[in-house]
Design brief:
The N and C termini lie far apart (about 35 Å). The chain has a single domain (about 5-235), classed as Rossmann fold (3-Layer(aba) Sandwich). It has 9 helices and 7 strands, in the order E-H-E-H-H-E-H-E-H-E-H-E-H-H-H-E. By secondary structure, the protein is of the alpha/beta class. The structure holds NADPH dihydro-nicotinamide-adenine-dinucleotide phosphate. NADPH dihydro-nicotinamide-adenine-dinucleotide phosphate binds near residues 36 and 189. This is SDR family oxidoreductase.
Length: about 250
C-alpha cells in the first residue's frame, strides 16, 4: 500500500535513521536518504543492493540549514514527484549537568532537534499539500520526561511533542497527519558510548529487560507513514519496552 509515495528521512546515515530508510526501501517506497555526514551516507549506499538503489536518492542535508532543506525537497520532487512522508530523525546530544552546561551546548541541541524539525515541516508541507496527502513523523524520546545531565536534550524532545501536535492541528484539513515516535534506550552509535554499568541500570527500569534495536523504531515509523495508520494523528507513540516509571 502506498508503495510509490516518497519519504525524506534525516540523519539517515546512522542508527535509527538508517534503519528507517532501510525499512522503507524494503517496503518499496522511494526514499530521499539525507544526513550531514557524507561518509556515513556513502557507507550506507555501499551496503544496499542495486535494485533497492533504484528507489534511493542520497543527499547531504544539514537539518539546521533552511537552504539545504529547499534543495533536498526540490531534488526529491524532481526524481520521485511530490513528497508524501517526512521523518525528522537527525539528532545530537551534548550532555552535562546544568551548571556545567554552557549556553552553546543548549542552543545547538535545541537547534538540531526543534528548529530543524520545524524547518523540515515548513519545507516539505507545500509539496505534501500539492500531492493532497502526507504523514510526518518526528522523533521525540522517553527523555522528554526529564533526564539527569540532559536539560537541553530533554527540553528539545518535549518541544518536539508540541510541534508535532501544532502541525497536526494546522495541516489535518490538507490530509496531512503529524505524529511522533518516542524511543526508549536503543542500541545505536548515540548510546554506544554509554558505559555498560549505566546501561545495566537502564535495563532494570525497562519491563522487557533489554535495550531496543533500531529496526523496532523503524517498524513504528513505517506504520505511521503508511495508510495503515490513517486514523492516527497528533499522537506520541512510545516504543520503549515498557518504562512504567515515566
Ligand atoms: P546517531 O548518532 O546514530 O545518528 C544520528 C545521525 O544524525 C548521525 O548520522 C548524525 O551525523 C546526524 N546528524 C547530526 N547532526 C545533524 C544535522 N545538523 N543535520 C543532519 N544530520 C545530522 O543517533 P540515533 O540513531 O541514536 O538517534 C536518532 C534519533 O533518535 C535522534 O533524534 C535521537 O535523539 C533519537 N533517539 C535516540 C535514542 C537512542 O537510544 N539511540 C533514544 C531516543 C531518541 P554525525 O554522526 O556526523 O553527528
Amino acid at each position: 500500500m502506498n508503495a510509490e509515495a516518497p519519504v525524506i528521512v534525516t540523519g539517515a546515515g546512522s542508527g535509527i535513521g538508517r534503519a528507517i530508510a532501510r525499512r522503507l526501501l524494503a517496503d518499496a517506497r522511494p526514499v530521499i536518504i539525507t544526513d550531514i555526514n557524507e561518509h556515513a551516507l556513502g557507507e550506507f549506499r555501499g551496503s544496499l543492493a542495486s535494485e533497492v538503489l533504484d528507489r534511493a536518492e542520497f543527499c547531504r542535508l544539514d537539518v539546521t540549514n533552511a537552504a539545504d532543506w529547499e534543495g533536498v525537497v526540490e531534488r526529491g520532487r524532481a526524481r520521485f514527484g511530490e513528497i508524501t512522508g517526512l521523518v525528522n530523525n537527525a539528532g545530537i546530544t551534548r550532555d552535562a549537568s546544568m551548571l556545567r552546561m554552557d549556553a552553546e551546548a543548549f542552543d545547538v541541541v535545541i537547534a538540531t532537534h526543534v528548529r530543524a524539525s520545524w524547518l523540515g515541516c515548513k519545507a516539505v508541507i507545500p509539496s505534501m499539500r500539492a500531492g493532497g496527502r502526507g504523514s510526518i513523523v518526528n522523533i521525540s524520546s522517553s527523555g522528554r520526561h526529564g533526564v539527569f545531565g540532559q536539560t537541553n536534550y530533554s527540553a528539545a524532545k518535549a518541544a518536539i511533542v508540541g510541534l508535532t501536535k501544532s502541525v497536526a492541528l494546522e495541516q489535518a484539513r490538507y490530509g496531512i497527519r503529524s505524529n511522533a515516535v518516542a524511543p526508549g534506550a536503543i542500541e545505536t552509535p548515540m548510546t554506544n558510548q554509554v558505559p555498560e554499568r549505566v546501561k545495566a541500570t537502564w535495563k532494570e527500569t525497562i519491563l522487557l529487560g533489554r535495550l531496543g534495536q533500531p529496526e523496532e523504531i523503524a517498524a513504528a515509523a513505517a506504520f505511521l507513514l503508511s495508510e495503515e495508520s490513517s486514523y492516527i494523528n497528533a499522537h506520541v507513540l512510545d516504543v520503549n519496552g515498557g518504562e512504567l516509571h515515566l
